[in-house]
Structure formats: C-alpha cells, structure tokens
Amino acid sequence: MSAAAGWLRRWYGDSPLHLLALLASFALAGYAVLAVVTAQQWRGFAVWFAVAIVGHDLLLFPLYSLADLSVRRLLPRRAGGTGALTAGRMAPPVVNYLRVPAAFSLLVLIVWFPLILGLSAGTYHRASGLSTGPYLSRWLAVTGAMFAGSAVCYALALRRAGRAG
Questions:
Q1: In angstroms, rounded to a whole number, what is the distance separating the alpha carbons of residues 109 and 136?
Q2: Mean pLDDT across the stretch 58-69?
Q3: Cα 43 from chain centroid?
Q4: What angle do CA 65, 69, 71 make, to 5 degrees?
Q5: What pTM does this model have?
Q6: Which among 42, 111, 98 has a CA at the least distance from the CA of 70?
Q7: Which of 10, 92, 119, 160 is most buried, with most CB under 10 Å away?
Q8: What pLDDT shows up at residue 145?
C-alpha cells in the first residue's frame, strides 16, 4: 500500500475505492436532481419524494417490522431467528427464507395492485382490449413459486449444515 493510500485510509476511514464509489453515487444523484429541476418538474418530484418518505417511514416500516416480529414470535425458538444446532453446526434461521419471497411478493403487489385487485378493469380494457382477470392468479402463482424456491434453498442450506457437521 502506498503512503498516499495509507494516509487516505486513515483520514477517510475506508479504502479509496469506497470513496470513489461514494462520490460517483453523489454525482449520479446530483445529475438526477438537476435533470428534474431543469425539466420544471421539481414540484411534482418534491411531493412524490415527501409522500414516499412519509409513506415508508410512518406507515410501511412499522407495518413490516410488526409483521417480521410476529413471524419470529410465532416460529419455534429453534426455527426462528437464532437457528438450530444441526450436527454441531448452526442451521440457518427459517425467518430469512420467509422474508425474501414475502418482500418481493409485496413489491409486485404494490406495483401492480390496481390490475391484481381489478380496480382499473374498465380503463385497462379500454386502453388495451385485455381483461385484468389473469393478474390475480398470475400474482398468486409468482408468489407461490418464490416461496417454493425459497423452501428449496432452505432445504439445501439445512442439508449443507448437516453435512458440514
């Protein structure tokens, strides 16, 4: 390590690559804000940003934190957050294999809820000539496939934990 890199690590607290990535992300965020401001859409952007912050921090975060806490309390202690001892090695906690498909399923639901719940059936049919009927069954199928894939991953992790011990 060169003297300059060592000085930078002591001064900054991390590697020069981390600082470069941080500066690049700030530059990208600045470019995005500049693009919105120059397009005269800053009021709509500010309202959207404020609603997103309030909606997430005051509504969604407490709800999914409560849901996560409830799931961890409902699961047996050995299957919940700490993991079970399997052949001398800790098995992965099952709650992690429930969080990921649930989060992606909720994300898909949030993005497509008017079509999944049939709330925009008339508008969608006039615009596309198609029905919103298949959206609910397809969302349920995608959700089921994500949970099934997560169950397979959990079974493989349990097998690997048992084999390693």
A1: 9
A2: 89
A3: 27
A4: 115
A5: 0.62
A6: 98
A7: 92
A8: 98
* pLDDT for the residue numbered 77: 64
Domain limits, the chain: 1-40, 49-74, 76-165
- Cα 59 to chain centroid distance, Å, stands at 16
Per residue in 66-117, pLDDT (tens digit) is: 988 898 888 876 554 555 554 456 778 888 899 999 999 999 998 898 889 9
Taking the CA atoms of 157, 158, 162 and 165 in sequence, report the sign of the dihedral they define: positive
Mapped onto helix, strand or coil, the DSSP state of residue 85 is strand
Cβ-contact 104, 146 below 8 angstroms: yes
- CA distances in angstroms from 63 to 21, 48, 59, 69, 142, listed in the order given: 33, 21, 6, 10, 23
The amino acid at residue 2 is S
